Amino acid sequence: MSFDIKSCQLMHFGPHRAIAGRVAGVVRVRIGEDFLGTHTDYTLDLKVKADIGAASSDVIRHALLGHAARQLNKLKLRHQQRLPVAAE
């Protein structure tokens, strides 16, 4: 089983509607996965956030992509765990 992240793109971001100092956005991720001999490419739209306050757009982009990376690392770890094998 393989799980490869092909690309990440910050689609949009802006101030959170209710929480002051928080920025929210969406990161689109392209993933390629091989499972039981089948290759599948798909995209995920991850909701990301950062409590960064007033900062430059580069700093905000970096913080949001960092949040997406943490989410993807958790997802990748779950996919790499061994599946239970039925007893024969």
Largest β sheet strand count, sense and barrel closure: 3 strands, antiparallel
The sequence of SSEs as H and E is EEEH
Number of helices: 1
Mean pLDDT: 86
Beta fraction of the residues? over 45%
**C-alpha geometry:** elongated
What's the Cα radius of gyration?
Answer: 17 Å
| Uncertain ranges | none
Kindly report the spatial arrangement of strands forming the biggest sheet: 1-2-3
What gap, in angstroms, lies between the N and C termini? 22 Å
Oligomer: single chain
Query: How many strands?
Result: 3
Structure write-up:
- The protein is an alpha+beta fold and 88 residues long.
- It is 27% helix and 48% strand.
- The protein has 1 helix and 3 strands, in the order βββα.
- It has a 3-stranded antiparallel sheet, covered by helices on one side.
- A hairpin with a 6-residue loop joins strand 1 and strand 2.
- The longest helix has 24 residues.
- The two termini are 22 Å apart.
Put the structure in a nutshell.
With 88 residues, the protein is an alpha+beta fold. The protein has 1 helix and 3 strands; from the N terminus they run βββα.
